[in-house]
Amino acid sequence: MEHKKNPDVSAEHSIRVGKVKDLEKKGISAWPAVKQTNATCHEVLDEFKEDTESRQYEVSGRILTIREHGKTMFATIQDRTGKVQIYIRKDAVGDETFDFIKHYIDMGDIVWVKGASFKTKMGEITLKVTDFALQSKCLHPLPEKFHGLADIETKYRQRYLDLITDPESRKRFKVRSSIIRTMRNFFDSHDFIEVETPMLHPIPGGAAAKPFVTHHNALDAELYMRIAPELYLKRLVVGGLDRVYEINRNFRNEGISTRHNPEFTMAEWYIAYKDYHWMMDFIEQMIKDIIKHAGLSTELQYADHLVDFAKFERLSMKASVMKYVGIDENTLDNDIDSVLKQHEVHLKRKNASWGEKLLALFEELVESNLIQPTFITDYPVEVSPLSKRDTNNPEIAARFELFVAGMELANGFNELNDPFDQAERFKQQSQARTAGDDEAHYFDADYVLALEHALPPTVGAGMGIDRLTMLLTNTPSIKDVILFPTLKKKD
Question: What are the chain's domains?
Answer without folding.
Answer: 9-142 (2.40.50.140), 163-312+373-480 (3.30.930.10)
